[in-house]
Amino acid sequence: MIRAEHVSKHFRLYRKPSDRLKEILLRRSYHSVHQALEDISFQVDDGQTLGIIGQNGAGKSTLLKILTGVLLPDSGRVRVSGRITGLLELGTGFNLEMSGIENIRANAMLLGMGADQIASRREAIIDFAELGEFIHEPLKTYSSGMIMRLAFAIAIHADPSCFVVDEALSVGDAYFQQKCMRAIQDFRARGGSILFVSHDMSAVKALCDHALLLEGGRIIDQGLPKDVVDHYHAMFLHRSHQGDVPVVIQRPTEHAAPRSQNSAPLAGTGEVELVKLEMLNAQGQVVEHVTSEAPLTIVAHLLAHRDLDQPHYGIGIRNRFGHSVFETNTYCMGQTPAALTAGETVRVEWRVVANLIKGDYSMTVGVGNRPYGTGSFDEILFFSHDLAMLKVEVDPDAIRYDGYFNMHPDVSIQTVG
Ligand SMILES: Nc1ncnc2c1ncn2[C@@H]1O[C@H](COP(=O)(O)OP(=O)(O)OP(=O)(O)O)[C@@H](O)[C@H]1O
């Protein structure tokens, strides 16, 4: 269990190093104060994973340093039941002149392991790191990925009760990253608590039980990973908007229930309104459920409150974890929709085949203007998730498959020997 209670931390910023000395000698202030963390409180229970997200400089590393005891908070306190380890400050305490084996001993002692414990875990650490003969070579001959292997192997074998997973994990190759993720999942299944700090929002949604969003050193949102990640994405839409009207970012208040079709958009200027969103079956009837593999038509009626010279329309389907199963927009599809005049309503009809596995899905709708790049827009007029729910049921006679969706494989089998 990890608990942070009202943790705050500031840094003094000096414009030049000599200002520190001047401050002492002249007894005048030569610094400005930067509040890196302000009143941070949360708890991660045993067997739980908390995702910490936020833009560069939001305070994530500072928070991790305080949790792991590398930095002291100005006020507030942190309580950790047991040992907290991770890859923070990758290889802190490693000696580059010493071999991998020698570093295992030194680093494990730094993490608080006793001599007997180190001796009994040594082979397991060496096996996990898979460094071959390099384990006998000095660390200065290692690549950053090899150092990460060693650091992770030691940290996960140090019997932690809390494990910090941060971007340092991405230094490893794909094979080792997957191995680490499996070890972390096992650790969680045994009751360990995990702090997961990442810019990979899909991973946050897939791995975490809860998430918190930091901005300017404060927690501006916390809750289900899916909702907090939506909020984070909405912040980017906010920033990318170049128009005159401020973007409205609205957090859904009720996590479980889908928002009504006329609720304010999650992000957008509000200059386009979603009047109606319907799903129709092959017979043109409005439905909320569909059989896997059946045709489905999604119809959005969108009312423009201002002229749009290059409008584009987007659609998305997400599963119950908030993972995007499919999304596209008319720009990505190479379409050039007609310009819209204020007061006009446009009917956008998407005809798809619901080749999805059984489950609950939700609809995303977006409207942008003036596209550029690989699917970005100068203006986002409307963008909202969870607008309508779709239940996909499985036809027992259909081809059986698992995963997210049916890729309609073509298979051939030959006897070759
Ligand atoms: N030792 C320090 N002295 C002065 N300012 C600091 C120090 N460490 C961090 N800061 C400042 O505190 C703020 C938070 O930094 P922090 O590294 O915690 O952010 P972050 O969310 O981890 O960012 P990133 O995603 O880029 O790693 C930043 O504005 C940073 O410049």
UniProtKB/TrEMBL annotation:
Keywords of this entry: ATP-binding, Hydrolase, Nucleotide-binding, Transport
Source species, domain of life: Bacteria
Coiled coil: none
Top-level EC class: hydrolase
E.C. number(s) listed in UniProt: 3.6.3.40
Domain ABC transporter per the UniProt entry, residue ranges: 21-241
Transport as UniProt keyword: yes
GO molecular function: ABC-type transporter activity; ATP binding; ATP hydrolysis activity
Any GO CC annotation of this UniProt entry: membrane
SUPFAM superfamilies, A to Z: P-loop containing nucleoside triphosphate hydrolases (SSF52540)
PROSITE patterns: ABC_TRANSPORTER_1, ABC_TRANSPORTER_2
Database matches in InterPro entries: AAA+_ATPase, ABC_transporter-like_ATP-bd, ABC_transporter-like_CS, ABC_transpr_TagH-like, Bact_Polysacc_Export_ATP-bd, P-loop_NTPase, Wzt_C
Family, as annotated: Belongs to the ABC transporter superfamily.
Protein name listed in UniProt: Teichoic-acid-transporting ATPase
Gene source species: Thiorhodococcus drewsii AZ1
